[in-house]
């Protein structure tokens, strides 16, 4: 079981990024998936989740209306579209498969002018 994130980087406030989480070693379509983030000096926090069929999603309040979680089961990939980024969104973002207790290595997102 392996999860590999990509798509992080440096972006100005108000900008957008799309993160990807590619799964291998298991069939992603059977699993609900989540994104978490950890800012420097802070605890890891929940960002968003999506059901195995993509019908149900959930977001932490601070990202509602700005972030969108989605999935492409045919590509075994989960996405996090992040719009209207703020400096407080700066963190390492990791995907998580709770049913497998599997974490990706994380990708750095830095929002700064």
Topology:
Elements: E1 2-6, E2 9-11, E3 17-24, E4 33-38, E5 45-50, E6 57-59, E7 67-72, E8 77-82, E9 91-97, E10 102-103, E11 107-111
Parallel strand pairs: 2-11
Antiparallel strand pairs: 1-3, 3-8, 4-5, 4-9, 5-6, 7-8, 9-10, 9-11
Structure described in brief:
By secondary structure, the chain is mostly beta strands. The protein is 0% helix and 50% strand. The strands form two sheets. Strands 2, 4, 5, 6, 9, 10 and 11 form a seven-stranded mixed β-sheet that branches. The chain has a four-stranded antiparallel β-sheet with strand order 1-3-8-7, with no helix packed on it.
Task: Please explain how this structure is put together.
The protein is built from no helices and 11 strands. It is mainly β. The chain has strands at 2-6, 9-11, 17-24, 33-38, 45-50, 57-59, 67-72, 77-82, 91-97, 102-103, 107-111. Strands 2, 4, 5, 6, 9, 10 and 11 form a 7-stranded mixed beta sheet that branches. Strands 1-3-8-7 form a 4-stranded antiparallel beta sheet, with no helix packed on it. Strand 5 (45-50) and strand 6 (57-59) form a beta hairpin. The mean pLDDT is 96.
Structural class: mainly beta
Low-confidence stretches: none
Radius of gyration over C-alpha positions, nearest whole angstrom = 13 Å
Share in β-strands: over 45%
Number of strands: 11
The percent range for helix content is: under 10%
Euclidean distance between termini CA atoms: 37 Å
Total helix count? 0
* Whole-number mean pLDDT: 96
């Amino acid at each position: 079981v392996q999860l590999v994130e990509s798509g992080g980087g440096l972006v100005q406030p108000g900008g957008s990024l799309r993160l990807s989480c590619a799964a291998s070693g298991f069939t992603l379509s059977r699993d609900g998936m989540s994104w978490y983030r950890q800012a420097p000096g802070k605890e890891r926090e929940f960002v968003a989740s999506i059901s195995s069929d993509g019908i149900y999603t959930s977001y932490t309040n601070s990202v509602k209306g700005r972030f969108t979680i989605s999935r492409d089961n045919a590509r075994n990939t989960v996405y996090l579209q992040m719009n209207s980024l703020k400096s407080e969104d700066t963190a390492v973002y990791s995907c998580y498969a709770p049913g497998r207790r599997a974490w990706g290595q994380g990708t750095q997102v830095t929002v700064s002018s």
